[in-house]
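Exam prep: given the inputs below (a chain plus flavin mononucleotide), describe the expected output before reading on.
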Amino acid sequence: MFACLDDFERHAERTLDRNALDYYRSGAQDMVTVRENRRAFDRLCIRPRVLRDVSSVSTVTRLLDHSVASPICIAPTAMQRMAHPEGELATARAAERRATCMVLSSWSTASIEDVAHASAGLKWLQLYVYKDRETTRRLIERAQDSGFAAIALTVDTPELGRRLPDIRNRFRLPPHLTMANFSSADKAQVGGSEEGNSGLAAYVASQIDPSLSWADVAWVKSIARVPVLLKGILTAEDARLAVQAGVDGVIVSNHGGRQIDSVPSTIAVLEEVFCAVNGAIPVFLDGGVRRGTDVFKALALGARAVFLGRPVLWALHYKGEDGVTEMLDLINEELRLAMALAGCASIADITRQHVGPLAHLPRL
Ligand SMILES: Cc1cc2nc3c(=O)[nH]c(=O)nc-3n(C[C@H](O)[C@H](O)[C@H](O)COP(=O)(O)O)c2cc1C
Ligand SMILES: O=C(O)C(=O)c1ccccc1
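Solution:
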């Protein structure tokens, strides 16, 4: 019986093959940011209020214009079929079962259309901008035609971060799997490896456009008929530019510590970004969220919702759709309990006053 999200990871460490395990769990270089994403949550304390009638606690909230059962959603992670044969289809079904949002990676091993068929739940598409703009335009249009409710444009990946285990393993997508959203010509290119790099880094370098700039954000917005969010904002400066660019939200993310190492944890910069957008657009967060109390802290510091990356992969590997459902149930129960114990009966009851620095000494 798994008692917390880390138990799913420990199971995967024993059972998943090395190529996939290392790819999923690794971060960039020394993984300073990976560790920091976790530790920074632990340096915050919760300031509980008592005598608040928590006989009925509700985690229901709104995500852009949609109602969800919980502010805990699913981040885009590439190549989920390495974790389980049903991959993204199983994840989408679990998200629908628990009435939360799934963000599908552009680099999924099940196509946009197949995921849409598998689940009628709330879905967003994570978008990479390809050197080939027609490929990019088609992805946006296919997602819209399939009922995806928003586009999350990833802005922290002009090139792939340097993940040492993938370099040593010469990461490759197993030959029976494909990047399902692309033509067979594109699919052929992942795998094997260039000298001194992972197969994936070489593929990214060949496909993704490192010239991406604010002008391209305007271009994506001109095509999209659904809200466009920027995923990978870490500073007040970029948050203000995002508001000026007219996007519909930002996701505070350091890509799970997989892109540039030594950037701050996401929870440490959340409030800076939240203050910079000044209520103009919603702010979301991902990175290191493993506990109901982490979710509570992020909401108190301004996040409307949070997204889980690696825990979904570990749960998917454990038991497919049922595994992801079980994992969501576990952390949702932790959030419900944290809310009850902190005196918050609804998401709107969680305020800035409910968190503080761990070692805060009150003035006497
Ligand atoms: C294996 C893996 C693959 C990922 N693939 C993508 C991707 O295709 N697109 C993207 O925008 N982010 C991707 N991410 C980043 C996640 O969306 C998210 O930012 C991060 O995993 C959150 O941190 P967590 O894993 O600590 O929860 C990936 C992360 C992991 C671990
Ligand atoms: O591995 C990743 O973190 C990731 O985001 C990615 C980027 C490009 C292709 C596949 C995955």
